[in-house]
User: Fold this.
Amino acid sequence: MPTREALIAAKERDLDLVEVAPNAKPPVCKIMDFGKYKYQLSKKQPAKKAQELKEVKLRPRIGNHDLERKVKYLKQFLDEGHKTKVSMFFRGRERGRPDLGLQVFDRVIEMLEGKYNIINEPRYMGNSITIVISPK
Assistant:
């Protein structure tokens, strides 16, 4: 169908003439409601999350190498733009020594080299201490 006739047919129906395959010989067009088509496409795509809260779990008597590995994951999450929650759980007699956990958090913050924002300072809640860190 010639382009002019297709445009006239689209206007008669109060629709749009949309080019579907511009590289085809001859180009392929379709008569449709373009606004409705764009709306349906946007509904098909999942909504993007602004930030996802990731979590890294630690123990108060964690070894140096294990701590370095956990901080590496923590940096990776932060570099991807995620807020990250760092949790430390205490068991048994460890509950009586929250200062050990705070020392580990100090080492973690030192290893992060100040490139990130600490949203919540370390809080002792029940048998755990948590902090939330976000990218700058």
